[in-house]
Write a structure and sequence with these properties.
about 25% helix
């Protein structure tokens, strides 16, 4: 038996054990989808470097480990002060807390929600309106050709559900807090988020991922975001899980006519972390902005994959992804812009920039354009470099020590992305995290 067959059999056996405990729930439409997803995962297996989309990211550490699905809620010793440390200072907002992928009612707080707005867990939403939730759940994040999405769908149970009716302006951001906690056991966490707005809505979502006490888990998260006509959504994702953890995050965004979506993906943690953001501009005049910042040290691998599908005319997209790599870390960027035949008057810009702080850090970058229309404006570009010695010398000539000069220039490089985050408390936390990571990199270099 091959190793790949052995690990897929492992997940199938865990699924079979779980299915026997579901009783009547095994007859629901959702569980039928779970079975289809498991069958597809078994067929696909985990991706390998022989596949073009994974050529630079070796998933063997994930594919060779028998991660145990976290199938029920367990507080895992999480305390109030653990959660309070993860709240954004100065952000007086509702927050949903998930521990190992499951909603924690005791640590969550939802207040000042306008009538008609739903902010709850996926599990409770399915109990209230199973058919209504399934109209969007799994509709946008297809598992046909993505093993990680198939695995997530096979074990989907919980996550965040946010639904806004037409003409709703949610003034305060919503904070979704995902905590990996454990006693040393290797868990696979499968949160599933569904965010849907009607027409003329405004919404800001902050999504953060953390590990407590060094928990080394595999987080396999899928988010589906549907922006209604003329709606405005900002989606900020911060991943700061432990150095021994693995994180595969996939977001699928569907935009209606005249809608605006801003996605900010900030990654600091994980031994292997991959963010995939897929956008379909499915209504005329839609606009999306994708920003990303990755900061890696040691032996980390951070992979960013983006796809923007211009499916309708007169849409625009703007993309800026930056990486700061130290030690022997590796970065990957693959950004694809597709302009369909009828998507005339498309305006698309893509930029990828990488700053290498050591001679041993590396980046593989692959910007792509696939254009099938003729009346478009599309540009892309990628740069890789180190700190300019002339700039370092200029700062040192003003009496600034070498380490401080390097930090100032590195911080300035990152701030171009950080300053695009509109939620001020999150922006301030990113500043603090970046300063701490730069200090950590210096200490590692000294030793």
């Amino acid at each position: 038996m091959t190793a790949a067959k052995s690990i897929t059999d492992w997940y199938r056996s865990k699924f079979d054990e779980w299915e026997k405990t579901l009783n009547g729930s095994s007859a629901t439409a959702l569980h039928g989808i779970r079975r289809e997803a498991l069958a597809r995962f078994t067929e696909l297996g985990f991706p390998t470097t022989r596949q073009e989309e994974w050529r630079f990211t070796n998933t063997t550490p994930i594919a060779s480990a028998a991660f145990r699905p976290a199938l029920s809620y367990d507080a895992q010793g999480v305390r109030r002060d653990d959660v309070e440390k993860l709240l954004l200072a100065g952000l007086n907002a509702s927050h949903l807390v998930f521990i190992n992928g499951h909603f924690s009612r005791e640590w969550s707080s939802v207040s000042r929600i306008p009538p008609g707005v739903r902010v709850q867990s996926i599990a409770s939403a399915l109990q209230e309106d199973h058919a209504g939730v399934l109209m969007n759940l799994t509709r946008h994040a297809r598992f046909d050709d993505n093993a990680f999405t198939a695995l997530n769908t096979a074990f989907v149970q919980d996550g965040a559900f946010v639904s806004l009716p037409d003409n709703t302006d949610l003034e305060e951001p919503l904070h979704l807090i995902f905590i990996a906690a454990g006693d040393g056991a290797q868990f696979v966490l499968s949160p599933r988020n569904l965010i849907v707005t009607g027409r003329n809505c405004r919404l800001s979502i902050v999504e953060t991922y953390h590990s407590l006490r060094g928990a080394a888990c595999f987080t396999n998260v899928v988010s589906e975001i549907v922006a209604g006509e003329n709606s405005v959504i900002e989606h900020d994702k911060l991943q700061i899980e432990s150095a021994g953890s693995y994180h595969i995050g996939t977001a699928h965004i569907s935009q209606g006519a005249g809608s605006t979506v801003v996605s900010n993906a900030i990654t600091f943690g994980g031994a292997i972390a991959r963010n995939a953001v897929n956008v379909v501009l499915d209504g005329e005049g839609a606009e999306c902005t994708l920003n990303g910042l990755s900061v890696a040290t040691g032996k980390q691998l951070i992979d960013n994959h983006t796809t923007i599908d211009h499916a309708k005319p007169r849409c625009s997209s703007h993309e800026l992804y930056k990486s700061i790599l130290d030690g022997t870390s590796r970065g990957v960027f693959n950004g694809k812009i597709v302009v369909r035949k009828d998507a005339q008057k498309t305006d698309a810009k893509q930029t990828n920039k990488t700053l290498l702080l050591s001679d041993s850090a590396t980046i593989d970058t692959k910007p792509q354009l696939e254009i099938f229309a003729d009346d478009v404006k599309c540009t892309h570009g990628a740069t890789v470099g180190q700190l300019e010695e002339e700039q370092v010398f200029y700062l040192r000539s003003r009496g600034i020590p070498l380490e401080a000069a390097r930090d100032i220039l590195t911080f300035a490089f990152a701030s171009d992305v950080v300053n695009r985050v509109h939620v001020q408390p999150l922006r301030e936390q990113l500043d603090d995290l970046l300063h701490a990571r730069l200090r950590q990199g210096r200490v590692a270099e000294e030793h």
